Amino acid sequence: MAKFKILPSPPAAVRPQPKRPDDPTVDDGFVDKAKDAGISAADWVDERTSLSGTVRWVMFRPIPKGTNWFYTLGTATMVAFINQVITGMVLAMYYEPSASRAYESMKYINNEVFLGEFVHGMHRWGSTVMVLLVFLHMARTFFFGAYKYPRELNWVIGVALLVLTLAMSVTGYLLPFDQRAYWASVVAMNIAGNAPFLGPFTPPAALGGPDVTAVTLSRFYIIHMMLIPGLIIGLISAHLYLVIKLGTTAPPWIRADKVSGDLKEHDA
Amino acid sequence: MNQREKEEYLREYAILKAQGKPFFPYIIVKDGVMMIVVIGTIMLMSLTLGGELTAKADATTTTYAPRPEWYYFWAFELLKVIKPPELVGLATVGIPTIAMILLFLLPFYDRNPERHPLRRPLATTAGIFVISAMALLSYLGAEAGAPSQVNIDPPASIAAASHEDQVRWEAGRRLTAQSGCGGCHKIGPNGNDGPGPPLTEIGDRLKEGAIRETMINPTLPMPSFRELGPEALDEMAFFLSTLKSSGAAEGGH
């Protein structure tokens, strides 16, 4: 007979302890009524979505023993990406993706917009931090052998995310449309043009012509703003789903203690 | 991994999980601390390094030597290490593409069931080798002087020469830097070593007139610098002809 998998329950320390009605300390004061209102609102949503099961599945899932600081690198990478999304949206409110206005709008952001240069700097250096964290997260996964059974697919998704992150940095580099942006893009395209087989077709397809022009700018803008972020968000969701479903690995030097009898999920 | 190894792993993992702790609130605390560290670092970098812009993009300048982001320095350096022109395509696109394919397929060709880094010496050694090679190439790429500069002190013969010659030498040095010679030639500590020959001791091999002639009628793929005008060509040829093995072609400027 198939066994039902029981959802993990909250640890004792954070488990709610409702008062019993016959408890003499119960008073129907304002705080209790507000609590009840909150609970019934959450119940209303849960009755229609069954979200509480998912929340329990995600939040109270057991993490293997020995989990250390190396395992925060994935979260760190995701936080860097969220930083890019938020600062990127703020920049997009002022940025104009046209060859004649792009540079001026960046100057406007730097010099006129409140905290403009700070947000621009956070986006610019956030990309560096994100690339670094992707590499560190990957190195951790590699040296811990965490890409092995049953997590092979998650490794493949991770490598795809690395490629997309690098594509983000290439397309984003052009957007300020200053000298560095322009010439770095020219060089990058010359390099891509050297490739065997696909080389000769790459620059015209990417640039919208033989040179870096206004067409290139709007192309890179939409790739940088919509196409790749959409793909990244989708793949991160799949990545996270698999992380939660399969569980994070324990460090490879950790061995399970000998246990006897039936194995139970944690229940402190 | 065969079926027995898979089941063994899953059994071991189930025990490890049972002996672990729930994500909330024990593990999420670490993640929360890391979040604050990451955002704090980014804010600090933004405050100290800023979001400065260079001059507006200008497709007509030819002297701007772009530098890639630091995490592409290794690829930049790889381009310089691999010299033969027929291999340039391999260096720039081939190696990164092969590396990416190898990364994608890693779980499919690494069939070793062991996970401990010390018990899979081949994988660990390969990983350390790749990371060290990338670090070394990145370091070399970061150390290389910008190809748009020529940081050479005047040799003794010029230091002792007339003021006029010193001015011409200085003008030639600046023109050589601005004309992007360093894009293909190594000049003292600056420039890329290839595809052109190094110019650090060009004065040993060519006389001033020959250098000037080469700049006007070069061997392909070097472009002609005829449009710079006779005066600029004179100054550059004069500067380059003083670069000799006996002279001080080292040192900063």
Characterize the biggest β-sheet of chain A. Answer: none
CATH class of the largest domain in chain B: Mainly Alpha
Tell me the distance between the termini of chain B: 61 Å
For the CA atoms, what is the radius of gyration of chain A?
25 Å
Describe this structure in words.
- The complex is a heterodimer of chains A (about 270) and B (about 250).
- With about 270 residues, chain A is an all-alpha fold.
- Chain A has a domain at about 70-245: Cytochrome Bc1 Complex, Chain C, CATH 1.20.810.
- Helices cover about 60% and strands about 0% of the residues of chain A.
- Chain A contains nine helices and one strand.
- Chain A has helices spanning about 30-50, 50-60, 75-95, 100-110, 115-145, 150-175, 180-195, 200-205, 215-245; one strand at about 60-65.
- Chain A is extended.
- Chain B is mostly helical and about 250 residues long.
- Chain B folds into three domains: about 1-50; about 70-145, Helix Hairpins, CATH 1.10.287; about 155-240, Cytochrome c-like domain (Cytochrome Bc1 Complex, Chain D, domain 2, Orthogonal Bundle).
- Helix content of chain B is about 55%, strand content about 0%.
- Chain B contains ten helices and one strand; from the N terminus they run H-E-H-H-H-H-H-H-H-H-H.
- Chain B has helices spanning about 5-20, 25-50, 75-80, 90-110, 120-145, 155-160, 165-180, 200-205, 210-215, 230-240, and one strand at about 20.
- In chain B, helix 3 crosses helix 4.
- The radius of gyration of chain B is 27 Å and the shape is elongated.
- The chains are: A mainly alpha (about 270), B mainly alpha (about 250).
